[in-house]
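INTERNAL TRANSFER SHEET
From: sequence group
To: structure group
Subject: Outer membrane protein (Porin)

Please process the attached sequence and return the structure record in the designated field. Keep the field labels unchanged so the import script can parse them.
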Amino acid sequence: MKRTKYLARAAALVSAAGCAGLAHGQSSVTMYGVVDLPIGYANNLAASAPTINPVTGVETRQPGANRFGIQGAGGMSGSRWGIRGVEDLGGGLKALFVLESGFAADTGQVNRAGAMFSRRAFVGLQSSSLGQISLGRQNTSLYESLGDFMPAKFAPLFEPTLALMGGTAGSGAVDNAVKYTMETGPVTFRAHYSFGAGLSQFEITPVAGQGAGETPGHAKDNTAYGAGLTYLGAGLGATATYDQWNPAVTVGSTSTSRKAAFAASYSFERTKLMAGYRWGQIKDAAGRTLVRDDFWWAGVNYDATAALTLTLGYYYDVRKTLKTNAAQPNGNPVNPWQVNFIADYSLSKRTDVYATVAYVRNSGLNLDSAAIGFGNGAYLGQGKNSQTGAAIGIRHKF
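Return from structure group:
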């Protein structure tokens, strides 16, 4: 009976979509965006990534120095602009689309050459009773499920987003995806499947390799999928989420990158506390483990005044295995940790200024390492085992 009832509701959704041309509902198109630029400092920073011995796995680092300048990737948010639209089709059904492009505000260049809308590009249908189905380049379930449980909400400057999710397709978005979202009161369920994940939002190529996707006769190549369940109630929040990517270094030969995470938060008066854990594993096509780690984090947001928010975050990565190829010995990978602090002052609802500082041990800033292909560009200098970074910036939302 339940299955029959569900099929009937699904048929009603498709029927309503087919008759949408007969309706004359309201529609809207909105342009939006964020421009965020900080001036930042970092010490012990090398000009290029370390070279890694393919047999021993030993890193050879370049000399480090201090760097001072504008950070084009953004501070509190990545700079972006986008267009979103919705049309009311009647009967609780809506059509929607989102096109979103990321760019470096210091140069005006798009984040990914050849991709105008590298952050998101999708179209879908939303039903008040059946949820939302969407097709295109979209955020992964892991990324969206964890957003409310990160101290700095994935701030690009000093929150180690890539270390948390690096090696999982997209670290934020995947190509060729079908996604389902259902919100019921304080509970949200998300699930996605990508036929070919493509390049990540942050252009990170993981240790396991990356292929083109959607290869005829090799349906598993570069597929990705995941799901997440989130509860955000009055003061209490919790989430559980899983993500997997199957990158193909060569056609028909797939590696696996898996992540599972759990997080919780509690808000009272002017304070929000949060903590989480992420299990991670990357295996090559022969099933040999290249990366295995346990990532922990905790943080607090405190509204000191109506305009001033203070944030403190702590991140610790327990590395059990770290190799760039299976021939290397496991050795004894170091466990990096980082602490960061943010003071964010709102000048208005759309404009804020901020100051932030971070200190990391046993890696570059944002836990930059071979585990994520040194994707943050925070190359630790020769003979150094720590970095300090600081920045002040301004962000405007429109």
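Handover comment: The longest strand covers residues 27-46. Helices lie at 2-18, 141-146, 161-165.
Transfer complete.
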